[in-house]
User: Which sequence fits this backbone?
């Protein structure tokens, strides 16, 4: 929050555990227009897309994100939590991504707020592509 009581757009960071950081960089930068901000080590990269900062970590790389939990469980890719990227034309985006060999979990779903589909990154982390209804 601003001291005057207004809000400011801040960078939001999301960490994804990926099996292959280089493959994830290629996927996000070439297919989804992310910018590579840093790639200081084989097991870590930082990408950006607008106000979103995406931190990519290998589950076997160094650093805190790859450390085992007290019960011995280790970070792994996948799950259902996801980032959402707005696209102006979902059908065109899906067609372009399918032609590039991208994997989708489902077909386009129409809901009250718009249309969406779940795309998997190379490690199985989901990305929701969302086209909001036009007002």
Assistant:
């Amino acid at each position: 929050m601003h001291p005057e009581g207004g809000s400011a757009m801040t960078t939001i960071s999301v960490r994804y555990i990926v099996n292959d950081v280089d493959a994830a960089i290629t996927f996000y930068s070439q297919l989804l227009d992310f910018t590579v901000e840093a790639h200081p080590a084989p097991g870590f990269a930082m990408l950006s897309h607008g106000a979103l900062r995406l931190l990519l970590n290998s589950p076997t790389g160094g650093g805190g994100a790859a450390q085992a939990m007290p019960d011995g469980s280790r970070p792994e890719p996948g799950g259902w939590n996801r980032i959402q990227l707005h696209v102006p034309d979902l059908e065109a985006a899906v067609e372009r991504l399918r032609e590039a060999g991208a994997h989708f979990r489902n077909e386009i779903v129409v809901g009250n707020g718009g249309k969406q589909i779940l795309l998997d990154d190379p490690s199985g982390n989901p990305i929701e592509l969302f086209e909001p209804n036009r007002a």
In short: The beta strands are 12-17, 35-41, 44-49, 52-57, 83-86, 103-104, 109-110, 114-120, 126-132. The domain at 12-60+77-132 is CATH 3.10.180.10 (2,3-Dihydroxybiphenyl 1,2-Dioxygenase; domain 1). The helical segments are 21-31, 90-99.
